[in-house]
Amino acid sequence: MFQGASSLALDAKGRLSVPTRHREVLGAIANNQLTLTKHPHGCLMIFPRPEWEKFRDRIAALPMDAQWWKRIFLGNAMDAELDGTGRVLVSPELRAAAGIEKETMLLGMGAHFELWDKATYEAKEAEAMRGAMPDVFKGFTF
Q: Quick check: helix, strand or coil at residue 50?
């Protein structure tokens, strides 16, 4: 399970240095093989390859009325590999789709990661914090 937030900067070639706390796990469970794709909230999802394959199969099995969502998730998916120093290349197309230029937020979301443009993430998080919590949290104790 991946969790936690990391503020990271892309290098000049568009590579993201994955935090060391995640590298060993990615090596063990995915042989450093990742897949990146669009998320409907405007960020990117980064999957270890075995988790991507599960997600991909679920998306591919959707009916024809979900064809555009298949295109968004599957048609924009790009395979990548962590290099020897733990960096992954984020393609120019995916960076543009998420509005990512340099400063990012990488969030561990359980079985995958989300990669956000830092300013966009901070604005959306602040907006969420100002709003009411969803009903699903009514039974939670903090």
A: helix
